[in-house]
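Quick one:
INPUT:
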């Protein structure tokens, strides 16, 4: 994950905490569950949302758009979302 400072949702307070809450309200329930394979030995997980936490306004716009695009009434499943993200990351030579 990023090698930058991040502030996770459980560490956030004030405006950043409110931004996290608004973003996560948009996410379907299946995205709120922890995925065991992603949990590190110290019990934490990497978070693409937290990678944007130093600029809360940008994080809210970007991740809210993502939350709207992954709604369950749209035609793609979570597996399809993950496959698209994997292919795009591979094409961009991204290790995440």
């Amino acid at each position: 994950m990023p090698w930058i400072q991040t502030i996770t949702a459980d560490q956030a307070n004030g405006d950043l905490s409110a931004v996290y809450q608004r973003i996560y309200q948009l996410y379907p329930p299946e995205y709120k569950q922890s995925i065991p394979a992603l949990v590190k030995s110290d019990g934490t997980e990497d978070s693409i949302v937290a990678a944007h936490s130093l600029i809360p306004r940008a994080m809210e716009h970007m991740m809210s758009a993502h939350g709207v695009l992954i709604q369950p009434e749209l035609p793609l499943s979570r597996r399809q979302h993950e496959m698209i993200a994997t292919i795009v990351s591979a094409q961009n030579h991204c290790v995440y």
